[in-house]
Amino acid sequence: MGVSVKICGLTEAEGLAAAIEAGARYVGFVFFEKSPRHVTPEAAAALAVQVPMGVAKVGLFVDPDDAALDRVLAHVPLDLIQLHGSESPDRVAGIRSRTGLPVMKAIGVSGPQDLDRIWDYGLVSDMLLIDAKAPEDAVLPGGNGLAFDWRLLVGRQMLKPWLLAGGLTPENVTEAIRLTRAQGVDVSSGVESAPGVKDPDRIRRFIARATAPIL
Ligand SMILES: O=C(O)c1ccccc1NCC(=O)[C@H](O)[C@H](O)COP(=O)(O)O
């Protein structure tokens, strides 16, 4: 099976259409108000009708309480919940059982000290997203266009299906996959022309390169 691609932080129909037509397997909507990619539940619902079967609609949350999840789920038929805050393993398991939806936990990596958490969260999540750890003073816990040292993942066993994220672009995604053997990749700022503005051409180039056979 080829590499799966998630395009994250979609806010308007043109970028979403480009992602779907180019073969994205996952499309992400950000429900975090401080993000330039934030969408309301109503806006996400309008975009979601454009998404065909076979493409998973992912809702990205940062330390959501139950009411925040309920508010979004009342409007948007999500297929997968992405947790991008400091949710504990217990909270991940709780959200999974309360919503009945599969959960992908994002794990920030900046060095070898972060790698044990990949195992811990693999026990309670359906999928993992291995991302660059945000700097201490960052406003956003993800979507910062920063990469980490991909060599940290070489030969690493994962308990669950996983996506690589953090600073990926059409220019570097082939090398990232070749090195890490990632099953999937996730991108946001690397396919934008400005924060929060997706560039359909960069989306198409990213997906074409990520899904091309690696020699
Ligand atoms: O994208 C955001 O604005 C965002 C806000 C809060 C938490 C996470 C966020 N994005 C997470 C993603 O899924 C990104 O695709 C991932 O971190 C990679 O981002 P980038 O380095 O910009 O490609």
Automatic annotation (TrEMBL):
Its EC number is 5.3.1.24. It catalyses: N-(5-phospho-beta-D-ribosyl)anthranilate = 1-(2-carboxyphenylamino)-1-deoxy-D-ribulose 5-phosphate. Pathway: Amino-acid biosynthesis; L-tryptophan biosynthesis; L-tryptophan from chorismate: step 3/5. It is an enzyme of class 5 (isomerase). Belongs to the TrpF family. It comes from the Bacteria. Residues 5-207 form the N-(5'phosphoribosyl) anthranilate isomerase (PRAI) domain. GO terms for biological process: L-tryptophan biosynthetic process. GO terms for molecular function: phosphoribosylanthranilate isomerase activity. Pfam families: PRAI (PF00697). This is N-(5'-phosphoribosyl)anthranilate isomerase. InterPro entries: Aldolase_TIM, PRAI_dom, RibuloseP-bd_barrel, TrpF_fam. Keywords: Amino-acid biosynthesis, Aromatic amino acid biosynthesis, Isomerase, Tryptophan biosynthesis.
